[in-house]
Design brief:
The structure holds two protein chains of two kinds. By secondary structure, chain A is an alpha/beta fold. Helix content of chain A is 22%, strand content 30%. The radius of gyration of chain A is 18 Å and the shape is globular. The two termini of chain A are 32 Å apart. By secondary structure, chain B is an alpha+beta fold. Chain B has one domain: Sandwich (Jelly Rolls). Chain B has four helices and eight strands; from the N terminus they run ααββββββββαα. In chain B, strand 4 and strand 5 form a beta hairpin. The longest helix of chain B has 26 residues. Chain B is globular. Classes of the chains: A alpha/beta, B alpha+beta. Chains A and B meet through helix 1, strand 10 and helix 5 of A and strand 5 and helix 4 of B.
Chain lengths: 277, 156
């Protein structure tokens, strides 16, 4: 699958190491995608890396990818200025299942708890936009719980405020407060008890460091959330995006094809606790 | 509707599953308290003869530092327990707890409760089990924060 050349039409610095790139194809229509899916982005001459789509399908306009500068390729992507080009292959993988399917178009009335750690909010952003958009249609309540190392590392601050205004419950916690921070301090899981969702009628979408997701998933299940209703986004070494190369294998799963979004229940719960040898 | 102190104590997560007899013993050492934003529930170094079952509002567990704002270690909210120094000699607070917003709580006289546990060690065991569960949860959360998870592993 050949990369399609896209041009950077806007660029936003979210934090000191996270940049959001807005991309439009140089030629042809914008791709369709679902929240939770990812693209393989190429920084030409440097390499290719898997980056989740952070936009919402219902948004018109460019594709959004929020990139954290953690290595050679992501650094090169973060440094591309408006007008520069990147290669895009995708979209790949599974989604958060929040977009009403064409055949039913029915709104989900369950509570949805979205738990994000750090840049983990990026793959969830599109899902939250979709969920919040269904609130006026009678969609279930939306709870967005965000954990960050410190206040300056909180991404999408404007979105968090907009979601709260639209009726979602938005709670943010940091590990290390600054002297100007007046919000919650502590692990993101400590927000669960305060949130006010009904565990018996809740689905949960988790994305962040895998240890955080493991502990959050356990806490949710302990509260009474059905493990089948807990989805996690797992990441391994995504390379081909098509399930051919096997670099992203996790047990019987090829995460670029069977993931990144997978149910916590069953095999994944075991694999998340499996020690790699 | 007026809720009795007994009902309030009974409904708090700290007493879930506790025998009615023991809940009554706790209630006998308890009273309702309210704190305005900025009030200290407890102060580092002072005698720790009370613990609080939070009912509403949030409080910061924090430590003061010279020349700067207090350093907040964590935020606790409704359903939490503030204070376990009343259980262990020398019964002295090791941190401050400050109300971030209007806080409603049940204050339990730890010295009173300690006396009752001397008479009934099973009550002591039941209380210690609950405090230990709270301690364990806080310790695990602290360990997780020490891992600095959000730093991430980087690119593959």
């Amino acid at each position: 699958m050949t990369p399609v050349v896209h041009r950077v039409v806007a660029r936003t610095r979210e934090t000191d190491d996270v940049v959001t790139l807005c991309l439009e194809p140089v030629d042809g229509p914008r791709m369709d995608f679902l929240p939770g899916q990812f693209n393989m982005l190429s920084a030409f001459g440097v390499g290719e890396v898997a980056i989740s789509l952070s936009g919402a399908p219902r948004d018109v306009g460019p594709l959004r990818h929020s990139v954290r500068d953690v290595g050679a390729v992501s650094r090169a992507l973060c440094q591309i200025e408006v007008g520069g080009v990147v290669g895009v292959r995708g979209p790949f993988g599974t989604d958060w299942r929040v977009t009403p399917r064409e055949e039913t178009r029915s709104v989900d009335h369950r509570d949805t708890v979205v738990v994000a750690g750090g840049i983990g909010l990026a793959p969830l952003r599109g899902a939250v936009c979709e969920l919040v958009a269904t609130l006026p249609e009678g969609g279930g309540r939306v709870f967005v719980l965000v954990g960050a190392r410190e206040p300056s590392q909180i991404v999408f601050g404007e979105d968090l405020a907009a979601w709260a205004r639209a009726g979602a419950t938005v709670l943010v916690s940091v590990d290390r407060p600054s002297s100007l921070w007046h919000g919650h301090v502590g692990l993101v899981t400590t927000l669960l008890a305060d949130a006010g969702f009904n565990p018996a009628n809740t689905r949960a979408l988790l994305c962040g460091p895998e240890i955080m997701m493991r502990f959050t998933a356990r806490a949710l299940v302990d509260m009474g959330v059905n493990p089948l209703a807990v989805l996690v986004s797992l990441e391994r070494n995504m390379q081909c995006g098509l399930g051919w190369c096997g670099h992203c294998q996790l047990g019987s799963l090829l995460l670029c094809r069977d993931g990144p979004v997978v149910p916590y229940a069953g095999i994944v719960s075991g694999l998340m606790n499996e020690r790699e040898r | 509707m007026i809720t009795s102190l007994a009902q309030i104590v009974r409904q708090h997560p700290f007493t879930v599953g506790l025998d009615d007899e023991y809940v009554a013993l706790i209630e006998g050492c308890a009273h309702n308290v309210a704190f305005a934003p900025g009030d200290l529930l407890c102060r580092e170094g002072e005698s720790a003869d009370t613990f609080y079952l939070l009912r509403r509002g949030h409080a910061s567990i924090q430590v003061h530092a010279p020349g700067r704002a207090p350093i907040v270690i964590e935020t606790v909210g409704p359903g939490s327990v503030v204070g376990w120094s009343w259980l262990v000699a020398p019964y002295r607070w090791t941190f401050d707890a400050q109300a971030k917003e209007p806080v409603g709580a049940v204050a339990v006289d730890g010295a009173c409760l300690r006396q009752k546990t001397l008479v009934d060690p099973a009550l002591g065991y039941a209380l210690l089990s609950r405090v230990t569960a709270e301690l364990l949860a806080r310790l695990q959360a602290t360990r997780m924060r020490l891992l600095d998870l959000y730093g991430g592993p980087g690119e593959h």
